[in-house]
Known about the structure:
Distance between the termini: 90 Å
Structural class: mainly alpha
Number of strands: 0
Strand content: under 5%
Amino acid sequence: MATSLRLPPETRRTLNEHDPRWAIKFGMRAAAAFFSLIGMIIFAVTVSLSKQNYGGNDWVDGMPIAPLLISLLYNPILFFLTLYDRHGKPIHPGFSVTVDLFIWVLAVPAMVFSVGVGWFWWWQPVIIQLDDYIPCNAFNYWTYYCNPLIYTLGKMEIAANVFLGLVLILHFVLFVFACIACHKWRMARKRERIQRRNIELQYYRSPEEHMEGQPPAYTPSVNTGTSLRSPAGPVSHEENAVKYA
């Protein structure tokens, strides 16, 4: 999906400069938003049917709607800000780290409750059958023949949790990508501060101030009884006479 977007060349160039894997990340966020929409619809229908017919168990299937709604809203907003508002320049990766982690914090316990207290745990086979007749008594009350609605609700819960699991997997991978991007961003900012500091040292400090922080220059030791002179020192006439004699 992300690779088929018709983007201006400048926007696409900016995206490639900042993150060569932007198409993969955008594709994963598009898939997460799509799965969130389907899962949220299924959970909402399950809550409505459960509340109308049994008057309870609605909070279990209502909890996963919150992280799915956040995923459904955040990912398109990120698309719009990055592609059209900022023309390819990504936002701070810390936002994605926070949102992806928040989705995980909400979705994991929601999925645990939805699976742990789901309607499919009430399914049971037929216990008492009289020839071709199945009595809907206390023994067969939760069977498909006597209470088919819980089987419909259970199947919907299973399908919705499958989509919720896909959203969790995608946002976990995106969370890892966002952490890596955040680390690279901090390292880039650190390099910029070092370069700025070096420029300040070079142009805004005097040579004396700059040399104060440098190690002392090497000075050769002087042996007793030996005359040493600098290569740039003056040469006497007697030494020249001996040298060219």
